[in-house]
Specification:
The protein is of the alpha+beta class. 13% of the residues lie in helices and 21% in strands. A four-stranded antiparallel sheet has the order 2-1-3-4, covered by helices on one side.
Length: 97
């Protein structure tokens, strides 16, 4: 049996505007056997997470196959149970990519 994550992160991308946010992904506070930890669910840590995710979409990177429609324009961290939003991030209105 696995553990239910306390926090989840969801990204909004141009390719999913009508659908809403991407499926929930675990927000790991500490490093574990499942991967790196992202730290406390703060606005600054969420901004770092989104920056790294968006950088991974560049040609030659691990998520390049997703393409520019996968670029996050907003994100949120919420409690997995109860769905209360902890923090949010919004891309600038105009951004040079």
């Amino acid at each position: 049996m696995g553990n239910t994550p306390t926090f989840v992160v969801e990204l909004r991308t141009p390719g999913r505007q009508r659908i809403g946010f991407t499926p929930s992904m675990e927000w790991r506070v500490r490093k574990s056997y499942r991967g790196a930890g992202y730290g406390r669910p703060t606005e600054a840590n969420l901004a770092k997470y989104v920056e790294k995710y968006n950088a991974s979409l560049q040609p030659g990177e691990c998520n390049a196959h997703i393409g520019p429609l996968g670029r996050a324009t907003s994100a949120r961290i919420r409690y997995n149970v109860g769905s209360e939003v902890v923090t949010t991030w919004q891309a600038p209105a105009f951004e040079v990519v």
